[in-house]
Amino acid sequence: MSISRKVAIVGAAESDVFESDGRSPVGLMAQAIARALEQAGLQKSDVDGLFSASAYYYMPVLNLTEYLGIHPRHADSSTIGGCSFVSHIQHAAAAINAGLCEVAVVAYGSTQRTDGRRLVSIAEPSPYELPYGLIYPISSFGLIAQRHMAQYGTTSEQLAEIAVAAREWAMLNPRARYKQPLTVDDVLSSPLISSPLHKLDCCLVTDGGGAFVLTSSERARDLTPKPVYVEGTGEAINHRYVSGMPDLTTTEAVHSSRRALQMSGRKLSEMDTIHLYDAFTISALIQLEDIGFCAKGEGGAFVEGGRLAPGGSLALNTNGGGLSYCHPGMLGMFEVIEAVRQLRGEAGERQVPNASTSLVHGMGATLAAHATAVLSTEDW
Amino acid sequence: MSKVTTSSTARRPEKRPFAHLRGEERIYFRAAAENRLVFQRCVACSAMQFPPRSVCSSCLGHELTIEDAQGQGSIYSFTVVHRPGHPAFRDCVPYVVVLVDLDEGVRVIADLEIESGTTPRVGDRVEAFFEPHDEEYGVPRFRLILEGRSTQ
Lengths: 380, 152
Ligand SMILES: [Zn+2]
Prior knowledge:
The structure holds 2 protein chains of 2 kinds.
Chain A: E1 7-14, H1 25-40, E2 49-52, H2 60-68, E3 74-76, H3 84-97, E4 103-110, H4 138-152, H5 156-170, H6 184-189, E5 192-194, E6 197-198, E7 208-216, H7 217-223, E8 228-237, H8 253-264, E9 273-275, H9 281-291, H10 299-302, H11 321-324, H12 332-344, E10 357-364, E11 369-376
Chain B: H1 25-33, E1 38-42, E2 48-49, E3 64-68, E4 72-81, E5 95-102, E6 107-113, E7 125-132, E8 138-144
Parallel strand pairs in B: 6-8
Antiparallel strand pairs in B: 1-2, 1-3, 4-5, 4-7, 5-6, 7-8
The complex binds zinc ion.
C-alpha cells in the first residue's frame, strides 16, 4: 500500500524570521501554526496529529500541546537533525493513510540568533572527537570539503559560486535581510573558519519558525483550490558523527532521493524547483551529485557559470536558502514552506513560472540523515 | 623510528575537553594511556572496527578481540581550525584535525601536531603518539612522517 498522492499540504507558513521579536522557540512555533491553520481554514480543534523536532525541547510535541491547548491522538517528536520536518511528511502521510489522524501539523521554532549568534552546539559530542576541539558542525564539513577537493579537484571558487547564487535569489526575497550582491572574491576573502570553509561558505545564524498542515487528498480538495500533493517520500540514514561517516563524499541522499522519485513515478528533469539543504556550500554540492543532477565528482564544474542563480538552468533554493535567507539551526522546515509557496504561485518576484512540481531534500547532522519529498499541485 | 617534526609546533590545550566515558568507550583511551592505538576485530567474521563496540557492526557477533595498530597511516582528510571549537583551545588556533586511515584498515580521528604555518595534504603519511590525559586515560595524536611524504 503506497502513500503516494494520499495526502496533501493545505497550509504552510513561517513565523517572523531572522529575529524573533521577543518570542520563545515554542512561541514562534505557535505563531506559525496559527498562520498555517488560518490558510487552510482549519481550527485548532481540527488538529489530531502533531509533529515536531527541536534543539530546545526534549519532547517538543508536549510543549506545543500545553502551549496551544490541543489534544492530538497521534504525536511524533522523532528527530534526525535538520531534515526531521521533511521526514515528518512521510510519517504524517503514513499516519493519515492508516487512519491514525486526519489533520497533521508539523512545527518548528528557534531563537538561535537571539540566543548568542552562534549555532547551538550538539548536546552529545562524540567521546572520540571531543578531545580534539572540532567546531560543531563546521569542522565536520571542513573535513568533508577537504576530502571532496582532494578526491575530485573541487575548488574553493566553485564552492563560492553556490553562496553567490544563493545571495542572488535572496535579493529577490523581500523577507531576506542581506540585499547586497556577493562575489566569489567576497566569499574567498571572508575569514577561514575551518579550512577549506570560509565564513561565507557557512549558513546564516537566524531565528525562525514555521509550520505546515497535512490532510488526506480528499479532504484537501474541499479546503483549498491548490492542494500540494505528496507524491513521493524517502528516508535514508547511516551514521551519527563525521568520525563514523563511511564515505565523506557519497551519502545516503542517493537512496532517499531514489526512493522518493520512484514513489512519485517522476524523473528529476520534471522538477520545476529544487530545495536542498545548504547549511554549507559543500553540503549543497554533495546533494546535487548524490541526487543525480550531475555525476559524482562533477559538482564543482556543474555549479559554475551561474547555473544555480536566477535565470540559470536549475531553480535552486529560491528563497535564498540557509546561506542567504534563514537558518535557525534546522533548515528543513523552510525548504518545505518555500516549495509550497512556489507551487501555489505565491513567490512574488522570485516565482518560477508555472512551477507545478518540486523536490525537497533535507539532511541531518553531518550529511548523516537524509529525507526527500516530491511535491506537486498536478492532479492525476 | 621515523623522524618526526618537533620544533615550534602549535600550542596544545592544558586540559583537553573529555567525555564521561561509559563501558566500551573506555577501551580506546585506556589503551592510549599505555601508548597503544587499538581497534577491534570480530572473531566470527574478521571485520575490523573503530570505535570499539559491544557487537560486530558487520555480523553482530559478540566475540571481539582488541588488536594493537602499528600506529601508521595516511591522512584521509583534514581541517585547519581557525577559531577555537572549545574554550580549552582559546590559545591554540590554528590547529589541525585529521581523519587517518590506519594501515591496518580502520579510520580514526585525532589532531595533528605540525609546525606552525605548515599545512598537511590528503595522503600524507602520519604516525601516532600519545599524550597522557589523567591517571586512567590517554589521548592519541598524530605527527607527519617526513620521509614518507606523499607526492599526491
Ligand atoms: Zn563480525
